[in-house]
């Protein structure tokens, strides 16, 4: 049966359409998660646990920078002072399952965005669809850039700081594997979502909730919010917070520019 025109669809028809898009998303995530589970040994050893080893690229570059500045740094240590362990019977199996599901969501992100776009786009005007064709590519690119930033910047900074932090030589850092994976997961996902800021600003401007003037007016408040976010997703040292805050502020400036373009196009269309 041919698909109904969006103007002819009832509320139940829209729900049915949404249901099928969600089913496709779930199927895609499950398929990719199954593949991730099959290759989980590689994912854990070469990706998730890689920031434990001092030959990780981030530590190497930060060590060289510290040496150039003549500063003693834990980035130049021979070994990370922590031991991973499992304290529950199903701990490693649960970590394997949840990591595979997370990998399914991350890798399937472009397809997830595509399905959501397929659901939303019939309700847009032809002109709006034409100007939004790059939405899937841009949002996916920003998301994966955020993932890489979280993995190569936030995660190693957090692990290095927390592993070397000590209240007494009597206390040894024996970290539960679930806690370690949660730190990696939150750092990576938070960065991926934060990097979607320009896309969020674009749509908020389209619906009239945000204007360039508002973004400029509250820029100083945004700076405070950015520093708070940086403090939440990074260890509590100034250097790490500044490293994280800089790209977020750049994204905020890009969002102002995007908002200005959207408003200008809307005024041009009305004229």
TrEMBL record:
Keywords: Cell membrane, Membrane, Protein transport, Translocation, Transmembrane, Transmembrane helix, Transport. The keyword Cell membrane applies. It is a multi-pass membrane protein. It is found in: Cell membrane; Membrane. It holds the Pfam family TatC. InterPro entries: TatC. The chain crosses the membrane at residues 21-44, 97-114, 135-154, 188-209, 221-238, 244-263. Forms a complex with TatA. Belongs to the TatC family. Part of the twin-arginine translocation (Tat) system that transports large folded proteins containing a characteristic twin-arginine motif in their signal peptide across membranes. This is Sec-independent protein translocase protein TatC. The lineage of its organism: Bacteria, Pseudomonadati, Bacteroidota, Flavobacteriia, Flavobacteriales.
